[in-house]
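In this section we walk through a basic example: taking a raw amino acid sequence and producing a predicted 3D structure, encoded as discrete structure tokens. The instruction is simple. Fold the sequence below.
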Amino acid sequence: MELLQLQYFQTVARLEHMTRAAEELKIAQPSLSKTISRLEDDLGVPLFDRQGRQLRLNSFGRAFLERVDKAFVELLEGRREIRQLAGLQEGSVTIAVSLPHLLPGLLGPFLTQFPLVRLRQRIGSSASMKRQLESGEADLILSSAIVEGKDVVWEPLYEEEIFLLAPASHRLSGQASVRLEALREERFISMNAGHDFRVLTDRLCGEAGFSPFTAFEGDEPQVIGNLVRRGLGVAFVPELSVNRPLSPELRLLKLAGPSCRRTIGMAFGSRRYLSEAAQQFRRHVRLYFDSVGSDVASLLP
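The resulting token sequence is shown next.
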């Protein structure tokens, strides 16, 4: 039994006329008749009641046609799935991020599962990432600042606590928690002005009644941590960026107040086509943040 026989049988069963079926299939009528006869011989029963060139499906034919139709539906679904998987295996995804420190943990499992997918990273402000999404330069945005706009979907993923990183010798290093107001006279090591996290922490300090004195600003979290370790100031750090194990020369302090948090989320276009690779990566991001956990409590005094 061959697929071609089954395809021919479907057509003959639908038209119940050998000549018209041969014309539709663009084959010679005698050849079609032989194909159907071989199929019936293979099954051991007639599938049609014959009245000249007119055919009628009999009970065997109707039962067999039902099975053949289901088989072809499964085959078509299988072909579609394989094509999608092939597209996924060889696809590419461009992500715009303001949280590059999350990428190693996020991307590692995905690239292990789909080693032929090409991932491209774009870093920028919220405004520039939004432009990249709207222009099609980026498939997805991963950010701690809400991205809004026409045809843009913002999906919150994880609520992250903000801590204070201080040198072990700091006057507050032994406290269980610190109020923002107590940091009024501190020297801060901060991200560059305009960075999403800097905008957030400046706003938190403003709500606490002071403008933080920034002794150093930069865009490398590792440099910021090293400067704090050397006793040159303190720094705000988000929960998921805290390095483990924590250096013995550093202390991580809890900030009192419910507002010392930020929401990590993902944005994508509601009307833009996403490749199979991009759709799979979007699912991976959701699963990652559903399962991510922080052991930061073990690092607190």
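Looking at the output, two observations stand out. The chain has two domains: 3-87, 93-301. The mean pLDDT is 88. In the next section we compare this with other chains.
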